[in-house]
Amino acid sequence: MAVTMIAESGLLIDSQAPEWFRLQDCPGFQALKGVGVAEMDFGFVAKEGQTRWLVELKDYSHTGRPDGLAEAHSLEYLIHEFVQKAKDSLLVLGSIWYSLPNKSQLEPDLSMAFRQIPSLDRKLKLAFVVKRDEPQHFKAATQPLQDKLRSKIKGQCELLGIREYCEVFLFDHETAIAYGLPLQVNEASPRGSNKTKKKTKP
């Protein structure tokens, strides 16, 4: 039975996407996880074979509020969590790109696409996807939140020499799916569940 879909944050990730991986499942990453290094949920290479994606998912559905993110502290917490995971994930990749001390333990777990530093022809895109009951409400607030994310992450991109080749996106789940990310809505997901589950097909 081959695993084809991973349930995460109210969504299903297609594990058959090109060069798909999860840092949390990489043996070389486990020691770093133990000392508090955070990671984004999964990575993959776009079908055209050039663009690399790192994706973080968050389930804000079933909050009992139409907008789901009405409270200021919820917004601030969301941005803080996204930024921390992005910075740590970039440092993990940077450790490979610049032959830092943990390169030898991290490199075997990643495909060649992610071992190569981003460039004009090999861009890296960071996507933060929020699952909502009413995505249209979230879209109205997306631009200022996306700008804040980009502002907080650009320093790490500058230090790693990839500022021109790394893009940051904030999507509601419907927009992310329409954009082509390998995601589906998990109709069987319990309300408010952020647990990771695997689904198999023969």
Fold and architecture overview:
Helix 2 runs parallel beside helix 5. This protein has a four-stranded antiparallel β-sheet. A four-stranded mixed β-sheet has the order 3-4-5-6. The protein has helices at 30-34, 72-97, 103-106, 112-115, 135-159, 173-179; strands at residues 2-8, 11-14, 42-45, 52-59, 124-131, 166-172, 183-185, 197-201. By secondary structure, the chain is of the alpha/beta class. The chain has one domain (2-201). It is 35% helix and 23% strand.
What is this structure, in a nutshell?
This protein has 202 residues and is an alpha/beta fold. The chain has one domain (2-201).
Number of domains: 1
Give the fraction of residues assigned to helices. 25-40%
End-to-end separation: 5 Å
> What general outline do the C-alpha atoms trace?
globular
For the sheet with most strands, the description reads: 4 strands, antiparallel
Beta-strand content: 15-25%
Features:
8 strands; 4-stranded mixed β-sheet; about 200 residues; alpha/beta
